[in-house]
């Protein structure tokens, strides 16, 4: 059975009208997908870590103690610089401000030090005093109050800084004949608390939002002083103490 031309035209038009939306969807699908990909929200940039705020922590390390002990009564033979090693450990507290990648703040610390062997010496040079009299000094504790100024590098989690300020330390100094001649012999105590300066620098790394670790080098100079003996028969002693410190630090940032 043959279709008339009119019916054929009607069927062709109807089919075209029905297929048009499907063709449009197929044609536009890739473009729509591309538009959706372009309009997808980008991930927010990760904020740089903040060093600002209070922190508290502990430190441990080593120190090279320098001691110059001069006995004016026996200056020719006793005036000597000596060095000895100590363990050092303590704690610190501080506050940081931050402007861009610049970090500045204040830190105070207190540390105890073991007694070094090398800063005490036996006077074996003075004529008539061979084997007599142990001289020397050391610093059993040290406190500092320092400013810090640094810059963050890389991803902002690493801080390089310099530091400097006030140092306060106890100096234990003596000339002692008791080790050679017994308890009844003179023990001349020149101990005192000294104020000096400290300076150095370090590197600190933020390992978690509230935790940092670091390494710090510090030099402290408690200056020179002259003090009268605590025992009779002795004039005085002139003493000068320095410390070169290297230590590891662990801080909790609030």
Supply the key terms:
254 residues; alpha+beta; Porin; 17% helix; 2 domains; eight-stranded antiparallel beta barrel; 10 strands; 3 helices
Describe this structure in words.
This protein is of the alpha+beta class and about 250 residues long. The chain folds into two domains: about 1-40; about 55-254, Porin (Beta Barrel). It contains three helices and ten strands. It has helices at about 5-40, 75-80, 180; strands at about 55-70, 80-100, 100-115, 120-125, 130-155, 160-175, 185-190, 190-210, 210-230, 235-254. It has an eight-stranded antiparallel β-barrel with strand order 1-2-3-5-6-8-9-10. The longest helix is centred in the first third of the chain and has 35 residues, at about 5-40. The model is unreliable at about 1-25 and about 30-35 (pLDDT under 50).
Radius of gyration based on Cα positions? 38 Å
On the 0-100 scale, what is the average pLDDT? Answer: 83
The sequence of SSEs as H and E is HEHEEEEEHEEEE
Approximately what portion of the residues adopt beta-strand conformation?
Answer: over 45%
| Beta strand count | 10
Q: Describe the global form.
A: elongated
Determine the fraction of residues in helical runs and give it as a percent range: 10-25%
Number of helical runs?
3
**Spatial order of strands in the largest sheet:** 1-2-3-5-6-8-9-10
CATH-scheme architecture of the largest domain: Beta Barrel
CATH topology of the largest domain: Porin
- Terminal residue distance: 92 Å
CATH class of the largest domain: Mainly Beta
Which structural class matches the secondary elements?
alpha+beta
Low-confidence stretches: 1-27, 29-34
Main sheet record: 8 strands, antiparallel, barrel
Number of domains: 2
């Amino acid at each position: 059975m043959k279709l008339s031309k009119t019916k054929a035209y009607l069927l062709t038009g109807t089919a075209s009208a029905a297929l048009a939306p499907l063709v449009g969807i197929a044609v536009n699908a890739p473009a729509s997908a591309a538009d959706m990909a372009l309009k997808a929200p980008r991930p927010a940039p990760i904020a740089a870590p903040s060093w600002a705020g209070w922190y508290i922590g502990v430190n441990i390390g080593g120190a090279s103690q320098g001691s110059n002990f001069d006995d004016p009564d026996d200056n020719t033979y006793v005036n000597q610089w000596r060095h000895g090693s100590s363990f050092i450990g303590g704690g610190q507290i501080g506050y940081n401000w931050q402007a861009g990648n610049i970090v500045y703040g204040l830190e105070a610390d207190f540390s105890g030090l073991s007694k070094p062997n090398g800063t005490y010496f036996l006077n074996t040079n003075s004529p008539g005093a061979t084997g007599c009299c142990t001289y020397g000094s050391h610093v059993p504790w040290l406190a500092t109050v320092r400013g810090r100024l640094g810059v963050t590098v890389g991803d902002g989690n690493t801080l390089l800084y310099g530091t400097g300020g006030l140092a306060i330390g106890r100096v234990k100094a003596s000339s002692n004949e008791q080790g050679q001649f017994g308890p009844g012999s003179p023990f001349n105590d020149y101990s005192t608390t000294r104020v000096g300066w400290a300076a150095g620098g370090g590197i600190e790394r933020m390992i978690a939002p509230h935790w940092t670790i670091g390494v710090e080098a510090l030099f402290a100079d408690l200056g020179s002083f002259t003090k009268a003996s605590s025992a009779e028969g002795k004039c005085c002693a002139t003493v000068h103490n320095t410390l070169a410190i290297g230590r590891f630090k662990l801080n909790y940032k609030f």
